[in-house]
Amino acid sequence: MQTAINQTKIDIEDIFASKGRTKIIKILAINNETNISNIVKLTGLNHSSVKIHLNFLNKVNIIEEKCFGRIKIYRFKDENIKANAIKKLIEFWEEYD
Hints:
alpha+beta; 6 helices; 3-stranded antiparallel β-sheet; globular; Arc Repressor Mutant, subunit A; 3 strands
């Protein structure tokens, strides 16, 4: 059964809806993958806010969650064409910053 978020069109504004979510996207685009503790440290956001953003990004297929026992690693989903375009934009932006 698909969730409602997968059944509706997701606009780019939804992806970049908050500064916190944008920070998470940038961290994962640059690092490819990391754990939630590192994301919390790098963003300065609290754990529950990061978890909410990660769940949303996972549902819209921008990232994926990999579990290794109790450890969860979040990875930017390069094989998704939209995620890949976002990653290339961030890489380009950072290169010419």
